[in-house]
Amino acid sequence: MNFPYPALALSICAALLGLYFRHRRRALSSLASIRGPTSESYLLGNYRQIRQGQVGEVDFEWQDRYGAVLRFKAPFGEDRLMVCDPKAIQHIFQANFSNYTQPPQDREVLRTLLGPGIAWADADTHRRHRRVMSPAFGLGEAKSLIPLFRDTVKSLACKWKAMISGDEEDTLDQDRKPVIIDLPKWIHRASLDIIGEAAFGYDIGALDDLDSELGKAYENMTAEAFSLPTTAAVLAQGCMHLLPPVVVRWLFDHVPNNGLERLRSVKRVVDGVAKSLVTEDKGVHDLDRTRGGMGKAKGRDLLTLLVNANASHNEGSKLSREEMLAQVCTVMFAGHDTTAATLSFVLYELARDQRCQDRLREEIRGAKARGIPDLDDKNKYVKEMDNLSYLNSVIKEVLRLHPVGYHMNRQPRTDDVLPLHKPIVTSKGEQISEVLVPAGTKMIISVAGYHRNKDVWGPDAHLFRPERWLGEPCPGLQKNGGGAGLYSNLMTFSAGFRSCLGWRIAILELQTFLFHLLDDFQFSLTKDAMRLRREPCLVMAPMVEGQSDKGARLPLQVSIAPRD
């Protein structure tokens, strides 16, 4: 995001530097022995390397050189920590979670993007939000979305078949010439259709190119708002923590900037849709269903479930109307961008490894021969999907190798001691098994780094190998304990009290899409796909080297899958 106020940030920084360094002296001395990379400059520290490189690029290099907990420099010489150690991560997110919070300035970014919802909320406010929202994300609610997943992936498949053969019903003509399809464009549309319907019965019609305001608002949003930061923008972001949250809020709300205005406009559009569906007291409007517009709430969409759940709480624990609308913004963003990016990376890895793609297709067709796609019993459908061992191994391996939520920022409220899975060596040559972390220390929890930690995943941690999940996927954790993460020791959905409520829905959506797409289509690399970059855009986005200005792109060659 290209912030236009580096001069303002620098002037405030200069005024606060003396106070800041007095306040941080204890932190600087206690972290000084933790090894880490040499600062590029006093002004920028190592911040440019983190913000302008590909996702995980420096994380992997630093972890291999300095260990799974390391020190790096923020602007003006501030010491910060990068954490890739599973036992330390478990401590931060589970064992002592109440002591760790998102930095207040980072929360203002979330407030601008999503409103005062569950992603922004902290401590008791977060607990209150989570109590009201949890009923809308149970396994039963996930199962109710199966027909929507099926219908949407079938619509997507029809579009692709028409592009290949000119006939949406022509599924068996293997001699048709393959076409190049830009996956993110189509998968984002399909995912947006799903989340619009699931969130508030809103039929966006993105797959049909309908002129929907909501569809246009979300198209390529994160890439346009967060990618390709200038050096001045990196510096401004690195200095935000020196400003009081109220100042950061004013800047995000009022400073004229294309990236910020992109976020504000999306929020205005989503708020407008949600407000038109929620009455001032507790009801949902009864609207006629139209394509590309608002539909009648069906009783199981998120908004209706939230309204009903909220009505059952006492006044002190209820969500305000503003908070409820913010939850819809949060689900719209988290449920569409992240799942779509993950599915794009799955198909990319399958295109790179045809042996793996063939094996997965064989498992899927065997399951189809047993009648799984025609199951009306949702419980049995979910059980059968979970029993497809190779399908789920592929999903887990891509969640590990390409975590779209690659960094999480945390800081302790009070002094704390981080236990380590593996000792690190200090600059004095001493081995230590724990790290003293002073209150307020800014930390990057590197999900990307943890997911490539060789002490957890083995010496081939950087390789795409789904077979690791058919045996003992993380031998280091099996031996020494210290597992982190909500799902299969992965931090993709976070962990502990702030873990992702919609993780089961995301897994079921990925299972259903892959189950249908791999039976119909064969995916192969293109020259552009061989130049894939994993760009940091709040969530990780696939882009083509030299074409980042075009936003998320992953062009693959797609053909009708061969049949015996």
TrEMBL record:
<feature type="binding site" description="axial binding residue">
    <location>
        <position position="500"/>
    </location>
    <ligand>
        <name>heme</name>
    </ligand>
</feature>
<dbReference type="GO" id="GO:0016705">
    <property type="term" value="F:oxidoreductase activity, acting on paired donors, with incorporation or reduction of molecular oxygen"/>
</dbReference>
<dbReference type="GO" id="GO:0020037">
    <property type="term" value="F:heme binding"/>
</dbReference>
<protein>
    <submittedName>
        <fullName>Cytochrome P450</fullName>
    </submittedName>
</protein>
<dbReference type="Pfam" id="PF00067">
    <property type="entry name" value="p450"/>
</dbReference>
<keyword id="KW-0560">Oxidoreductase</keyword>
<comment type="similarity">
    <text>Belongs to the cytochrome P450 family.</text>
</comment>
<dbReference type="InterPro" id="IPR050121">
    <property type="entry name" value="Cytochrome_P450_monoxygenase"/>
</dbReference>
<keyword id="KW-0349">Heme</keyword>
<keyword id="KW-0479">Metal-binding</keyword>
<dbReference type="InterPro" id="IPR002403">
    <property type="entry name" value="Cyt_P450_E_grp-IV"/>
</dbReference>
<keyword id="KW-0408">Iron</keyword>
<dbReference type="InterPro" id="IPR001128">
    <property type="entry name" value="Cyt_P450"/>
</dbReference>
<dbReference type="InterPro" id="IPR036396">
    <property type="entry name" value="Cyt_P450_sf"/>
</dbReference>
<comment type="pathway">
    <text>Secondary metabolite biosynthesis.</text>
</comment>
<keyword id="KW-0503">Monooxygenase</keyword>
<dbReference type="GO" id="GO:0004497">
    <property type="term" value="F:monooxygenase activity"/>
</dbReference>
<dbReference type="GO" id="GO:0005506">
    <property type="term" value="F:iron ion binding"/>
</dbReference>
